[in-house]
Write a structure and sequence with these properties.
334 residues, Chitinase A, domain 3, 2 domains, 7-stranded antiparallel β-sheet, 17 strands
């Protein structure tokens, strides 16, 4: 788990439960998809090939477009992107509009463990945002990229790969993985006497209020929201957002919900071997989409060793949003 300092404003947190319509970016959110935003432009681009491999693009050259456009080549059956900050995995291939030749692309390795906020892509390629909104996992999308559809700094960064300073481009996006941005599901009743209270912003970001009480001396796990996704497998790493506070200091020592660099907040991908025992226990048997509160006494946390902003002999409190699971990788405890 990361140990950068973070602060959440409790004053900005409202509501104790997610009610009404499902927040954008969660499993219950609905979305209307425009399958072809500009048929005349997109008819000039033909995309073929196996979905598991880099595509083949046949385009009438020179290809020029004044406006960004997109068209679905294949529509997948998985979860929809209803919030561009949702975590996911894309394979992307970029082509030169002048010549039609491939410029660069991702590895198409089948690895879906590199989960990150999809807005990381749209910040570099503004043309991707409309193309991705309401797209579903398993989809292949052709994108016509105008001069303004790619950040000028990205053009400069990839100039050595042949990306031109000016001109239109063609991109193919393969949506490999889509996960909810936050927990969503059935809010569970818990007897919280003497335990921390969890509050949430309207878009699901949690905050923790620690009571003026003695900390429990055993691990306490409460499911606050029960998701309806699959149960985490023993051979999977959990993709999670979490916020952690110490019981005594009542201050956030770490949160994946905030980024110190200003980049989109991305979830953590954690296997049981990478976290303290109490955190691992909180993940056991949980379903994707769930939110869990866990109180971890020192002997199930970091014991008598200080860890960055965490003092020795600290009781830890985490709220964990379980977004899904990916194949586990072997890694040392963080």
């Amino acid at each position: 788990m990361r140990r950068t300092s973070a602060v959440l404003s409790i004053a900005a947190l409202v509501g104790v439960a997610l009610v009404g319509c499902a927040p954008a970016g969660t499993a219950g959110a609905s979305c209307d998809r425009i399958a072809d935003s500009d048929p005349e432009t997109m008819s000039l681009i033909d995309v073929t090939g196996d979905l598991e491999s880099a595509p083949t693009v046949d385009v009438r050259t020179p290809f020029v477009t004044e406006n960004d456009a997109h068209a679905d080549v294949v529509r997948g059956e998985g979860m929809a992107i209803t919030d561009i900050d949702q975590p996911g995995v894309l394979d992307v291939t970029l082509y030169d509009g002048e010549t039609g030749s491939m410029l660069l692309g991702t590895a198409y390795s089948g690895d879906v463990s590199t989960v990150g906020a999809l807005s990381g892509w749209s910040q570099q390629f503004p043309a991707f945002e409309d193309a991705l909104m309401c797209a579903t996992e398993g989809s292949r999308i052709a994108v016509a990229v105008s001069q303004d559809g790619i950040d000028p700094n990205v053009r400069a960064q990839y100039a050595q790969a042949g990306v031109p300073e000016e001109g239109s481009l063609i991109a193919v996006l393969d949506v490999r993985k889509v996960m909810p941005r936050a927990a969503s599901g059935r809010v569970q009743f818990n007897d919280g006497l003497g335990l921390p209270t969890v509050v949430r912003t309207p878009d699901g970001v949690p905050g923790i209020i620690v009571p003026d009480a003695e900390a429990p001396d055993e691990v306490v796990v409460q499911t606050l929201i029960e998701g309806d996704g699959p149960v985490l497998g023993a051979d999977e790493s959990a993709v999670v957002h979490y916020t952690g506070v110490t019981w005594d200091q009542r201050e956030v020592f770490d949160s994946t919900w905030q980024s110190d660099s200003g980049t989109p907040a991305s979830p953590a991908v954690l296997s049981p071997s990478q976290v303290v025992p109490g955190f691992a226990k909180a993940l056991e048997g949980q379903t994707a989409g769930s939110q869990v509160l866990v109180v971890i006494p020192p002997d199930q946390g970091y014991g008598d060793q200080a860890q960055g902003a965490i003092p020795a002999n600290s009781t830890l409190v985490f709220v964990i949003d379980i977004l899904g699971g990916v194949p586990a990788a072997t890694a040392p405890v963080q």
